[in-house]
Automatic annotation (TrEMBL), chains A, B:
PANTHER family: BLL6224 PROTEIN, D-2-HYDROXYGLUTARATE DEHYDROGENASE, MITOCHONDRIAL. Its cofactor is FAD. Belongs to the FAD-binding oxidoreductase/transferase type 4 family. InterPro entries: FAD-bd_oxidored_4_C (IPR004113), FAD-bd_PCMH (IPR016166), FAD-bd_PCMH-like_sf (IPR036318), FAD-bd_PCMH_sub1 (IPR016167), FAD-bd_PCMH_sub2 (IPR016169), FAD-linked_Oxase-like_C (IPR016164), FAD-oxidored/transferase_4 (IPR051264), Oxid_FAD_bind_N (IPR006094). It comes from Nocardioides zhouii. GO terms for molecular function: FAD binding; oxidoreductase activity. Residues 35-216 form the FAD-binding PCMH-type domain. Keywords: FAD, Flavoprotein, Oxidoreductase. This is FAD-binding oxidoreductase. GO terms for biological process: respiratory electron transport chain.
């Protein structure tokens, strides 16, 4: 391995091959703290050619690679295993915005550019890059692409795979595929871009991307709405689509437990409504400078909702500051739950017509496994996607950890039986690789393994992630 | 082969295995008439199980399969080669609408359902299936998916791959992959659906699909606009996006030559504007029942356009009948050009910022090859996509046919040099398989061949289509 380390140092410079435990520590444990591994080295190339040299060297040495972006993943997909034999390839130094073209509606970036920086550059160019998620201040575009990230703008703009036009990828043998096209239409063969998006670093290393920009939507109308049930929230979504059509940008749900944690732990947070209720929806319409009627449309939605008993009360943002404070209630949940104590996270999709029934049945079933358990439920109801995260009763974190496998299995079995997905946004990573395969047909797992073998015949790209070891 | 034919007859019934020349003739020649092949047999299964039995039988016999939908393709991707050794597998009998769920916004269909029937069923359910193209009365969803079809709604709703949530596919060995999920979010592994979309029947046979439905947009504002140049059209697009934002649904271009052919050959067609000009744009805004302001937005766009010298005149549709007659001018071009005589079709994308320069340079270059040539140019300028179709001078059709290869090569070389695509919508088929590979890097062709080998190791699915023979 000394030979390999020497070659890596030659490729990227001695300063960018980390092997000391102190230097390496931030790269081998994930955001949740659940996955902690060991690394042969952490390598930090600064250019696509350097990435190619690193991958070629590892390929020749038969050493496995774990690509890593902002290390904000929640399923252990970007950290090494416990063997100490894997190289972590961090894209964090590749932060160049290569080109912005507001007329074509494209931005071309290095994989290591932080999502918030892409948003900011787009805004400076008078355009919108719509992807938005909790970790946007530190997650990288390469990681967003590798995991097909979701977030709060999926309802209107789609997942990451719908926001990308072309990729640059270093293949498992070190060759570079230059697929950096900015075309909306290109029907000249298999869609390799879509194959790499969501592949979680198991088919190659994404080093650059051409992303789509959209017309800016500086006008907003935003409300925090009290709703009696998940069923009412789904019906309210239908109303909002009918009244606001193409301007509907956000439709997020949270239960009272989630709001309670935010009110308890987020400095400055306050309940915008007088009476507590079981469920809340954050709804937002957004439009370009010259579109009108957003406030009228929002009021029409809310009036119709109250009349149909789909809402009991609502707070409408009257200023940008009020808008921010309503959004903070939704965006603060994950952090607030972390402050509260241990969290068992799930990220599931249900067919939207089965969402209410599923959520109603799940609570009592989990309470039978661990009495007093608190489902802190929130997410993107417009996509059928709930972050169904569990907190224990106060003081019972150890019981939660002990029951974790049983609780997750109960949830996944129930999701699979309802034709849902056990990972809506977060991917499979190491945490769910085995579970993912277990809920799929043998034919589907065979197809995935055939794709993996075709592109990475030596199995050196992020082994154990996305697909379980054979 | 007698054994195989017997087995096919057992699988689908004697009536549905066609071998007589008269019965087979409609299945072995494509819409353009350019590609005419021969078939061992045409097999017409009625169910997914029957498709699986047909594919398994051919696989065991080592006989190649050509899947065919409505046979409306323009690049020879759905007709057999000249060997007489291939089986045409027609999906035309599989026409069941399996399920419509307006709340979830999904429709599940057999592959052989005609596109117009999907549109109609969606409309009956109060929803919109937005895909729209010239052949919608006879093309099938399976063919749309296999070729990643485009059309006039791509600007707002995207290509076919953005309209599909799940697929059912019979694999090259006869196994069935059931990926019929209706979830907007499902990050549990490689996106196999996107791999099959656009694969032109070379990886398997699509037998069913879950498609996305959208809120209906029964309100329209439509105009036929005279513009001085392609450059002005591109600037007008920017204006339209700024004023109409999310409601902009159509932005189509046509040159005067295209309009002249429609006026000459389409019964009842008339020029809606008093003075002729070089270029025209069909612009349409569309919204849900409760969205307002479309007429105001369209007038604002047109006023701003006239003020900025981006438009000289415009006809606004004042009734549904007038809207239909403006659309007929755009939709009649392809048929009118066929009536006029021989047509050499090209379907190219340019980066939108290079579109005007490219179109301006191309005309004189082609005239040097064949004096008097008429570029009949129209297409989806919002996507950078032109149907750059050539008619000869009157009476010179034979000269056009003789110069066809030189003309196409000149166009493709120029498109490739400008970072465009030689096939925006139509796919590669047999016509462009070799050209497609010749403009790609060796790395990209290698990747595509690796995918092909992984899923179809015996090379029996539509050989010679999409990738040239090795």
């Amino acid at each position: 391995m000394t030979d390999l380390l020497d070659r890596l140092r030659t490729a990227v410079g001695t300063d960018h091959v980390l092997t000391d435990a102190g230097d390496v520590s931030a790269y081998v444990v994930d955001w949740t703290g659940v996955h902690e591994g060991r690394a042969l080295a952490v390598v930090r190339p600064g250019t696509t050619s350097e990435v190619a040299a690193v991958v070629a060297a590892c390929h020749e040495a038969g050493v496995a690679i774990v690509p890593q972006g902002g290390n904000t993943g929640l399923v252990g997909g970007g950290v090494p295993d416990a063997s100490g034999e894997q190289v972590v390839l961090s894209l964090g130094r590749m932060r160049t915005i290569r080109e912005v073209d507001p007329v074509a509606g494209t931005i071309t970036v290095d994989a290591g550019v932080v999502l918030a920086d892409v948003q900011a550059v787009a805004e400076q160019a008078g355009r919108l890059f719509p992807m938005s998620l909790g970790s946007e201040g530190s997650c990288t575009i390469g990681g967003n692409l590798a995991t097909n990230a979701g977030g709060t703008a999926v309802l209107r703009y789609g997942m990451t795979r719908e926001l990308v036009l072309g990729l640059e990828v270093v293949l498992p043998d070190g060759r570079v595929w230059d697929g950096l096209r900015g075309l909306r239409k290109d029907n000249t063969g298999y869609d390799l871009t879509q194959l790499f998006v969501g592949s979680e670093g198991t088919l190659g290393v994404i080093t650059g991307a051409v992303l789509r920009l959209f017309p800016a939507t500086p006008r907003h109308a935003t409300a925090w709405v009290a709703v009696p049930s998940v069923e009412a929230a789904v019906s309210l979504l239908g109303l909002a689509q009918q009244h606001a059509g193409a301007h509907l940008s956000t439709f997020e749900i949270a239960n009272r437990q989630a709001l309670d944690l935010v009110l308890a732990h987020l400095p400055g947070a306050s309940d915008p409504l007088a009476e507590p209720t079981d469920w809340y929806v954050l709804v937002e319409l957004a439009a370009a400078e010259n579109d009108g009627g957003l406030d009228d449309a929002l009021e029409a939605i809310l009036s119709a909702a109250v009349e149909a008993d789909l809402a009991s009360d609502a707070a409408i943002a009257g200023s940008p500051a009020q808008r921010s404070s309503l959004w903070a209630l939704r965006e603060g949940i994950s952090e607030a739950q972390k402050v509260e104590g241990a969290t068992l996270k799930h990220d599931v999709t249900l067919p939207i017509t089965r969402l209410a029934e599923w959520a109603a049945a799940m609570g009592p079933q989990l309470d039978a496994v661990l009495p007093g358990i608190r489902p802190v439920t929130y997410g993107h109801v417009g996509d059928g996607n709930l972050h169904y995260n569990l907190s224990a009763a106060v003081g019972a974190d150890d019981d939660l950890r002990a029951a974790a496998a049983d609780l997750s299995t109960a949830i996944y079995d129930s999701v699979a039986a309802a034709d849902g997905s056990i990972s809506a946004e977060h991917g499979l990573g190491r945490t769910k690789a085995a579970a993912g395969a277990s809920y799929k047909s043998a034919v589907e797992v065979d197809l995935m393994r055939a794709v993996k073998r075709a592109l990475d015949p030596d199995g050196l790209m992020n082994p154990g992630v996305l697909l379980p070891p054979t």
